[in-house]
Write a structure and sequence with these properties.
Number of helices: 8
Structural class: alpha/beta
Radius of gyration: 19 Å
Order of helices and strands: EHEHEHEHEHEHEHEEEH
CATH topology of the largest domain: Methyltransferase, Cobalt-precorrin-4 Transmethylase, Domain 2
CATH architecture of the largest domain: 2-Layer Sandwich
Low-confidence stretches: none
Helix content: 25-40%
Largest sheet: 5 strands, parallel
Strand order of the largest sheet: 3-2-4-1-5
Strand content: 15-25%
Bound molecules: S-adenosyl-L-homocysteine
């Protein structure tokens, strides 16, 4: 047997934000190695597959990356369709490159299926365009997270050079992020939208500013949370014309 590995983006969490290609591959998968962030509802598409959690979640159990690589390679000897399912898009803050390199050096065929990344789901949740014609022409996707054994991060340089940005894996260090952005000359009034569990029924949005961001550290964020930073993320005073979602998902129903 020499199976194929599909590195698939699961999207931000809502099952119906999975791509059709991802859903079809999950339906025919023999084995699925999935992240902790991937909700059960989504795994239900993989009706006939063996499910293996290899998820990494900050501060919780994590399976070493090298071990995941080895398990993917071993699985192709037993199964035709091997799926590696990652939250959001597999190629953004997903350590996919290490898996790709391991598969290439083992001579294993693979394919990548993109997914909706958290920043796009968060922007949809707040109903605000990431880019703004004439004002916000560049958007940075960044993380302050530094893994063990990695060099000191210079994420602020690129982040501050962009007109707006999304910060992944940052809520735990919100006070340090606010201080760092202020030290780089960003204004106290710079709007920040904090979006927890984007696309899920438990979605929560908090509009704040760099000045007030440190105070949020007191709040409990139990789900994945993203920070959207930029002039366009100021809370809007009036509710806008959000259409009722025809599919009547709980999140849409709540907003209506
Ligand atoms: N590959 C993923 C990101 C993995 S890093 C993607 O493309 O989205 C994990 C981080 O993504 C979390 O710490 C959080 O900052 C963000 N994230 C993932 N899902 C999210 C969601 N539904 N709502 C808000 N943030 C989310």
């Amino acid at each position: 047997m020499s199976g194929v590995v599909y590195l698939i983006g699961a999207g931000p969490g809502a099952a119906d934000l999975l791509t059709l290609r991802a859903a079809r591959l999950l339906e025919s998968a023999d084995i699925v190695f999935h992240d902790a962030l991937v909700p059960r509802e989504l795994l239900a598409f993989a009706r006939r597959a063996e499910l293996v959690a290899v998820g990494k979640r900050c501060g919780r159990h994590s399976t070493a990356q090298r071990f995941i690589n080895k398990r993917l390679i071993d699985a192709t000897r037993r199964f035709a369709i091997v799926v590696r399912l990652k939250g959001g898009d597999p190629l953004l803050f997903g350590r996919a490159q290490e898996e790709i390199a391991a598969l290439e050096s083992a001579g294993i065929a693979y394919e990548i299926v993109p997914g909706i990344t958290a920043a796009l789901a968060a922007a949809a949740a707040v109903g605000t365009s990431l880019s703004q014609r004439g004002a916000v022409r560049s958007v940075a996707f960044a993380t302050p997270r530094v893994g063990s054994g990695e060099d000191v991060s210079d994420w602020l340089r690129g982040f501050c050079a962009a007109d707006a940005g999304a910060i992944y894996m940052g809520i735990g260090e919100a006070p340090a992020i606010a201080a760092a952005l202020l030290a780089k000359g960003k204004p106290l009034s710079l709007p920040v939208a904090v979006v927890e569990n984007a696309s899920l029924p438990s979605e929560r949005i908090i509009h704040t500013t760099l000045a007030a961001l440190p105070a949020l550290a007191k709040l409990q964020f139990t789900g994945p949370t993203l920070l959207l930073v930029g002039p366009q993320f100021a809370a809007r005073v009036t509710a806008t014309n959000r259409a009722k979602n025809a599919l009547d998902t709980p999140a849409a129903a709540r907003r209506a």
